[in-house]
Write a structure and sequence with these properties.
alpha/beta; five-stranded parallel beta sheet
């Protein structure tokens, strides 16, 4: 995939001639524009745009590629922005190889997909630089308010769209900064944090009220929030790490992936992070083993490389073809020196006071399981040891027990712990309480959270119009 250099990026030529930085920026901008136009012109404008149909947001991809190829960047941005509340973020972190680019007809013909994600990122970054991104302008005041629990991509999308419709919007989040996993779960080398904060600032400037360090169940129950607002959206995401049951798993140096990534991101913000400073979440000079095969595992291995790890290995119990993470991310990690140990699973963790190694069992693929994927099973007598100073568990996330945490026993959940909704209305078992994103569908992609936020905004808007009308009739 082509990656366009950022305008103003700190190249050696620029450092050596700081007085010509403005000229360099113009050269970089011209280069970016030329590459974007070149890639966009490769779009075949096919009769059936598989790229759009495989995008959860159904972005008008061929249309804004054509506009980009013609040099009409502002129009291209406006069309991209029409379906997405955060196109520059999706352009950076969407697994395009599994979505739009993976379904490009040019890719099918063996000539390499149009680099849709890079073009989307470029045109939106250009829009911010040129001042084309409009401030959030609230619609006429409707006299109703909504509360959003969770400031991740689904919650921020709802806040954006509902504020634009004229509602008073309050967002409640447990962290000190908004953005959820966009802020603390995704590494800065994939998603620069000022990109996320810029979106948050736009919402705050438009009148969205953010309540940080706010935990539902501690600072207010769900019922109390319902009394404050005309409708509620639960968009908490899923944060409960999946466990490994093996001897020694509680040893020092065996850490959770989200704790590790959060510490790294906080350090990037300049925060005081004792767990990083004392080495708990710092891979510098260590032999690192990451367990898991999803996108979070890829984020961990690539972060460890950047922290200066002595070696980085990734254990995954299936083979490469059956891993859930992006193949593009695997390739990136391999190019950076990560070693993938396929068909391997941890059996135990060695070490007394601190982890010193991982006992590994080789696996083989047996019969398909309920999901249709061939289930891994141990290959007897194949055990061996890998030395490790830091082990990062990245097996994915499950929902937290929201009925208990929110003091809301009547909130219905599925057998997987996700919030149960009526898929026509996106409302939960509680009247006026909606839900969107991973807390409904399980751990998924940012682009799906944006899509869910967009959909729930429409459903909630209809609900609130009926509620307002009923209130006027009663009065």
């Amino acid at each position: 995939m082509l990656s366009f250099p950022s305008v103003g990026q700190d190249y050696p030529e620029k450092r050596a001639a700081g007085e010509r930085a403005g000229d360099f920026a113009e050269i970089a901008r011209a280069y970016q524009t030329a590459k974007a136009e070149e890639q966009s012109s490769r779009c075949s404008q096919c009769g059936v745009p598989y790229c759009s149909t495989h995008c959860p947001l159904h972005n008008h991809i061929p249309d804004w590629l054509r506009l980009t190829a013609e040099g009409r960047l502002r129009e291209a941005y406006e069309l991209s922005n029409a379906t997405s509340t955060m196109p520059e973020i999706c352009g950076r972190i969407c697994p395009q190889d599994r979505l739009c680019e993976g379904n490009c007809v040019i890719e099918f013909s063996g000539h390499g997909a149009v680099t849709i994600g890079s073009v989307e990122k470029f045109i939106t970054d250009t829009a911010w630089e040129e001042g084309w991104v409009e401030p959030l302008t609230p619609g006429p005041d409707r006299g109703q308010s909504i509360g959003i629990i969770g400031a991740g991509p689904a919650g921020l999308t709802v806040a954006d769209l509902m504020r634009a419709k004229g509602y008073e919007v309050h967002v409640y989040d447990r962290h000190d900064r908004m953005g959820g996993l966009l802020t603390y779960g995704i590494p800065g080398f994939k998603l620069e944090k000022h990109i996320v904060m810029r979106r948050v600032d736009r919402l705050a400037d438009g009148g969205v009220i953010f309540h940080s360090n706010f935990e539902v169940g501690r600072d207010a129950s769900l019922e109390e929030l319902q009394a404050r607002h005309d409708a509620i959206v639960i968009a908490t995401g899923v944060y409960k790490p999946r466990a490994i049951k093996a001897p020694g798993v509680g040893a020092a140096g065996v850490v959770e992936s989200l704790d590790y990534l959060t510490a790294s991101n906080r350090k990037g913000f300049g925060d005081d992070v004792p767990g990083f400073d004392d080495g708990t979440y710092n891979a510098l000079g260590k032999h690192v083993v990451v367990i898991g095969g999803g996108d979070t595992a890829m984020d961990c291995v690539r972060t460890a490389v950047r922290q200066g790890a002595a070696s980085v290995r990734c254990l995954y119990r299936r083979d490469r073809a059956n891993m859930p993470g992006s193949q593009r991310e695997v390739k990136n990690a391999e190019e950076e020196g990560v070693e993938f140990v396929w068909l391997s699973a941890p059996e135990a963790f060695h070490g007394t006071d601190k982890v010193a190694g991982v006992q590994v069992a080789k696996m083989r693929l047996g019969d398909p399981d309920a999901s249709g994927r061939r289930a891994p099973e141990p290959d007897p007598g194949s055990e061996y040891r890998l030395d490790a100073d830091l082990v990062i568990k990245a097996l994915g996330f499950d929902p937290e027990e929201l009925p208990r945490l929110f003091d809301a026993p009547d909130l219905s959940v599925t057998r997987w712990g996700t919030v149960r909704v009526d898929h026509k209305t996106m409302m939960t078992s509680l009247d006026g309480v909606f839900a969107a994103g991973d807390i409904v569908r399980g751990a998924s992609l940012v682009v799906w959270a944006v899509r869910d936020g967009r959909d729930v905004s429409d459903r909630m808007h209809e609900y609130l119009k009926v509620k307002a009308k009923a209130g006027k009739v009663a009065a």
